[in-house]
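Why predict the complex rather than its parts? Because the way molecules touch one another can change local conformation, and only a joint prediction can capture that. The input here totals 561 residues.
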Amino acid sequence: METGKFYDQYTVDDFILDERFHRWVMEGRDDALWQQVLRDYPEKHEAIAAARSFIRSMQIKTHLPAREQEQAALERFRERALAKEAVVMEGMVHAAEDGEKGDGTKMRRLGQGRKWLIRIAASVAILGLAGSTSWMLFKKRPVVVGTSYGQMKQIKLPDNSIIYLNANSSLRYHKSILGGFNREVWLEGEAFFQVEKETDRSGHYQNFRVHTRGMAVEVLGTAFNVKDRNSNSSVTLQSGKVQVSMDEGRSVTLAPGEHIEFNRKEHQLTKNKVNPERYTSWKNLRYTFDQTPVSELVQIIRDNYGLEVVIADEKISDSNLSGVLEADNLQTFVNALSFALNITIRKEGNQLIFEPKQKLQ
Amino acid sequence: MPTASGNTFQGIHREGGNTMAWEELYAVWFRKLFNYGRKFSPDEGLIEDVIQDIFLTLWQQGSLEVRSPDSYLFTAFRNNLLRKIKLDRGKQLESLSDEYDFHIELSPDQLMIRNERRNENHRKISHALATLTSRQREFIFLKYYQQLSYQEIAEIMDISAKAVYKLAARAIQLLRRELESEQCMLIALVLCSPPPSGNR
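Output of the joint prediction:
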């Protein structure tokens, strides 16, 4: 078999970049050709093996929507498409009537029976829509609000509670078109909650519930911060009173200024007294640090900006930071950070590199 | 298989309320575009809005007849999503330099392989991926995850095929530099593994 290419001059990278080679590795296509290449160029075995291993190791993580989310998306599409269809049908009825008044010949060609058929079909579609509309008005469907890296959002819920959603986070709840809302939300990431007190018809206070992976926070009306990153969940109470229940059974009540951390993997629960400002000031676009180790800064940068930190000098990892840093965008935060730590911070691709300051010549 | 191939909806028209085919199409592409969109932004609500707008437009047009539906949908989705992210960002905090974000991670399934060397390899590639630019990472995703051709990737990313090749060469070079030191050991391992089984 004629291979027709100068494979003898191929480097590992050339093999990796060759589309036919890629297809062979991934889908087994053109097997005969590549077996021939293997026979013809024994000196290329190493390069081919390396290229093959490289291609196979590039397995990228999939992000799939939750089943419920997928179902809701399909329902929304169905409803909106149906609504558009009904508008088209209604247009057809008007067109038919206009045709009758004006140029009668057009209608006659369509035929009386055909016209009625259109009318009936349209009425059925419109009636069907009206029926499903009233049901649509009450039906609670999931709403997902999310933020990108470096982004923050303020959300007002139907019960007038206000939520500040930190970067790289998402909040899910159910709401009907008429504003029906059962005061229950699911959080991934970090958010600050300012919950309004609400009573039901009989005057009883209604609880507001925040779920994270591993626990639920229950309140009446208060201000608090919830953070759920990696395998840690934490709650910091600013005012009022909350009850936190772990999925595994334990539950704790917090007083203002109290902070709990729960590690899902190790089932470890710690509770201490803190300055709530340290955990909540991010919502005002500033970070408050108090003897905060660099390792914690690294985690914040990873969670909120999606960047990896590379520390070029061990001395930097040993330092810690106290003070309030402005963070209305990444650039200001990085500037403040480099000033406070007295280091140079450089961005390279997806990495921030922390280096000791170069001495001035 | 109702996934990648264009044949699935080359011939779909809106006839007599044939919503079934559309719903099927929507379901398949919802997952595909959702996964792609999550690499640009964790904002899942925004991603869903963009997907739905595209499909409603198609639905109103009544048919989708383009040469390559795959690149058409990826392209339309990418353009709309990036526009919305930019609009959003104008009012919000902004990120440094790069035109847009694109984040990928290696699949954790790989870690299940109980092999020290492989884990080391995995760690090194993950580390190297972080040093690439968003564009380079997007190429890696479209090529290694979606298995698209250079030509299709060029259409989606709106650059020439030559530019894609250049982007690819640079990305591969950077990734491989990270692995170089381990190369000899890897070769020994791979040579022992069976050749890929052709599926035909």
